[in-house]
Amino acid sequence: xxxxxxxxxxxxxxxxxxxxxxxxxxxxxxxxxxxxxxxxxxxxxxxxxxxxxxxxxxxxxxxxxxxxxxxxxxxxxxxxxxxxxxxxxxxxxxxxxxxxxxxxxxxxxxxxxxxxxxxxxxxxxxxxxxxxxxxxxxxxxxxxxxxxxxxxxxxxxxxxxxxxxxxxxxxxxxxxxxxxxxxxxxxxxxxxxxxxxxxxxxxxxxxxxxxxxxxxxxxxxxxxxxxxxxxxxxxxxxxxxxxxxxxxxxxxxxxxxxxxxxxxxxxxxxxxxxxxxxxxxxxxxxxxxxxxxxxxxxxxxxxxxxxxxxxxxxxxxxxxxxxxxxxx
Length: 328
Fold this sequence. Notes:
Oligomer: single chain
Structural class: mainly beta
Shape: elongated
Number of helices: 4
């Protein structure tokens, strides 16, 4: 049974009998004025989902750890005094949301355990303990965006199940080469950092479908990036890219390519060897021409292209194949 008490102006969870509480499997009390939870929360012994987001909680009672069926817990947008230690003792928790809670650190002894989804975004976290990366073999989604991370611990492949990693808007200047060991990673967000280069091991992310690296300080992309045959979307705009690797013809799945606001003067011939490309954004670069080798064969589906604010000569004519796309 679901018990919906969202946005009711509550400063406490209404008391209920042990018998009634035993029927509740999902309890939603978000967007209220809760400052604490009573020990009677233990009555909800069959509770699987507990949503406490957008309240005034500073800590959690020990009784939370006595809920044997609890699988999902949301504490986002609460003014926590620190990482609640009781969270380390919930044995079967699979999803944990701690976004925008004011956290500055994660305990060194924190272990993801059974966690599949962990979200710690919009906090003040400056470092990730080794234990998070070394013991997260079930994690599929890890969100650490909008923190103050400067470095990452070197994962040794223990995050083997990870499918989505969000590290955007931190203070990262480099990435560990072990990043390439995340063989199941499909989505990687790195935008808004201070990265000057990406590791060559990036090309080992064979399952990667989406990569966002805009708003960094990149001057080039690793040659190995051309090995990402499953990559569908790449946004590397707002960097200082001067060229692209010659091997980008390996992007057989590429559909959406954003390279605007860089320093590109030319594109490799393999740009014409992207059979699935539908949207391409190249404005505000220094391009003098576009490649045309085999373009008629490999660029038949391009729908949208942006070319404004480049360095094309006045007498240069746009090749016919590009004219089929909508100019923006």
